[in-house]
């Protein structure tokens, strides 16, 4: 069930009034539903059924420690995209065997850390990176488990900024070159070649691009087996979209069935790396109205205390997020542009929205902000990183307190 539902006059997160959280913690504040995180992991697990699979939650979507702990306890493993995310995973209770390490541009220190830990798989991005992983393993007298990320030159049909699988994108090696690169890797004593990795985009609303990518990597895996290269798994990345604005989204069952149908004949274990589909609907950003600016045409600017520094998606991708008052208000709805306080004209959360009589002090909830919300927040205009709250079983607690200006400056003095 969707976590953010009205009860009487109050918009709640799993029955807890958001107005009470805002009154206690202040705004801007992210609120997460532990129940939703668990439900999303459980639904994906159930959808893959008894086909051998592993769910590696993409930490880039939201790596708040409490979020990761809930995901891990629900049976989610992790996909880390940086050394920092690896450390968060360990702190949250993951073992190295729970971690796949992905990412364009891994530094020598990150590679060495992943090799030293012995993570489940390093998803290598290039022939050069495979060499550097091998060198790090040799220096440590160990063997690193690696997969090769391929670029299948397939359009995701999503927003251009969050598409990653075209030949023009920086990700992976061209699939046409993958066979030779994997064969070389498979022959290196310091590497254990275990799989093929692909991720073609995010917020995908159709399954066809995912089917095409899966078909391409199944074909490559067969070629590698023909060459005598050992393959254990196919990692098909993330990408499953969510409904920000009532869009039709493939349910977990259809998503899993589409992938399993293609992978099953290979018998290979299936790894997926969902980020948004797990965390997106689990979070909302609470923000307070700090000013109302009439525009002369009957419409208004509604200015919030949160902007692109707290939630970058609208400014960066023109992304749509529903915006609702946390307490029902009397009075006629007004048409307004909901904007942030940042000194940028792109700092707009919503255009031509209808809100019930917003006033200074009104608290609004920006919905479906659990993924790529807090994770992409910044100190721009010296905003503090926002507070974060976890709602669990009718109770709530602060899982990140609001940053202070002293904490921002401590690295500068
Ligand atoms: N695996 C890899 C290798 C990825 O690059 C990504 C996302 C994921 C998994 C998780 O994808 P998801 O299931 O969340 O679609 N900041 C953007 C999204 C960027 C996604 C980048 N890669 C946004 O706010 O829409």
How would the blueprint of this fold be written?
Blueprint: E1 4-7, E2 10-13, E3 16-17, H1 18-25, E4 29-33, H2 34-48, E5 53-58, H3 65-73, E6 77-80, H4 83-91, E7 99-101, H5 108-117, E8 121-124, H6 127-140, E9 144-151, E10 173-174, H7 175-186, E11 191-197, H8 208-226, E12 233-235, H9 252-263, E13 269-272, H10 276-279, E14 283-294, E15 300-304, H11 313-317, E16 323-325, E17 333-339, E18 348-356, E19 363-366, E20 387-392, E21 395-400, H12 405-409
Parallel strand pairs: 4-20, 5-6, 5-13, 6-7, 7-8, 8-9, 9-10, 9-11, 11-12, 12-13, 15-17
Antiparallel strand pairs: 1-2, 2-3, 4-14, 14-15, 14-19, 16-19, 17-18, 20-21
This protein binds ligand LLP.
Keywords:
single chain; 413 residues; alpha/beta; Lyase, Ornithine Decarboxylase, Chain A, domain 1; TIM Barrel; 2 domains; nine-stranded mixed β-sheet; eight-stranded parallel barrel; 12 helices; 21 strands; 30% helix; 26% strand; binds ligand LLP
């Amino acid at each position: 069930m969707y976590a953010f539902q009205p009860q009487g006059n109050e918009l709640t997160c799993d029955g807890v009034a958001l107005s009470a959280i805002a009154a206690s913690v202040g705004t801007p504040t992210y609120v997460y539903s532990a129940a939703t995180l668990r439900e999303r992991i459980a639904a994906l697990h159930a959808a893959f059924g008894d086909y051998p699979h592993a769910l590696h939650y993409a930490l880039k979507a939201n790596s708040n420690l409490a979020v990761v702990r809930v995901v891990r306890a629900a049976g989610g493993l992790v996909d880390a995209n940086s050394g920092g995310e690896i450390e968060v995973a360990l702190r949250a209770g993951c073992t190295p065997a729970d971690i796949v390490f992905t990412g364009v541009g891994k530094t020598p220190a990150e590679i060495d850390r992943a090799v030293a830990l012995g993570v489940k798989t390093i998803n290598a991005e290039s022939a050069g990176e495979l060499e550097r992983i091998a060198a790090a393993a040799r220096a440590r007298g160990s063997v690193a488990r690696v997969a090769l990320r391929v670029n299948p030159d397939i359009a995701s049909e999503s927003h251009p900024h969050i598409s990653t699988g075209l030949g023009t994108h920086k990700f992976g090696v061209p699939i046409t070159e993958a066979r030779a690169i994997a064969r070389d890797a498979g022959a290196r004593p310091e590497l254990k070649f275990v799989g093929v990795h692909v991720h073609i985009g995010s917020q995908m609303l159709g399954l066809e691009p995912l089917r095409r990518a899966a078909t391409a990597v199944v074909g490559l895996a067969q070629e590698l087996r023909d060459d005598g290269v050992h393959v254990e798994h196919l990692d098909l990345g993330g990408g499953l979209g969510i409904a920000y604005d009532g869009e039709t989204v493939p349910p977990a069952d259809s998503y899993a069935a589409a992938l399993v149908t293609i992978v099953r004949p290979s018998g290979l274990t299936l790894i997926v790396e969902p980020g948004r589909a797990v965390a997106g609907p689990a979070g909302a950003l609470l923000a307070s109205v700090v000013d109302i600016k009439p525009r002369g045409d009957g419409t208004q600017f509604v200015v919030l205390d949160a902007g692109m520094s707290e939630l970058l998606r609208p400014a960066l991708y023109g992304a749509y997020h529903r915006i609702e008052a946390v307490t029902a208000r009397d009075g006629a709805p007004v048409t307004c542009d909901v904007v942030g306080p940042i000194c940028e004209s792109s700092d707009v959360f919503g255009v031509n929205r209808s809100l019930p009589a917003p006033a200074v002090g009104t608290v609004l909830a920006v919905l479906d902000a659990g993924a790529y919300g807090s994770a992409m927040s910044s100190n721009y205009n010296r905003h503090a990183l926002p507070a974060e709250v976890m709602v669990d079983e009718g109770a709530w607690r602060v899982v990140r307190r609001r940053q202070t200006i002293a904490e921002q400056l401590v690295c500068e003095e």
